[in-house]
Amino acid sequence: MSIRSFEKGGEMRESNLRLLRLTFEAAGIVFEDEGEMVPGGIGVRLRSTDENTQPEG
What we know:
The chain is mainly alpha-helical and 57 residues long. It is built from two helices and two strands, in the order ααββ. It has one domain.
């Protein structure tokens, strides 16, 4: 299923959700697991900047 279909209310396979999370985490996104508090408060945020999270180009 595509992200577009998911945004319209479709179901997404667990394997696709895991791949999306891994992709976002590799790009520097930090997710909180349920009940977890990461520094900076509740939500999704960018990891601290380093040479591995700099935009390409």
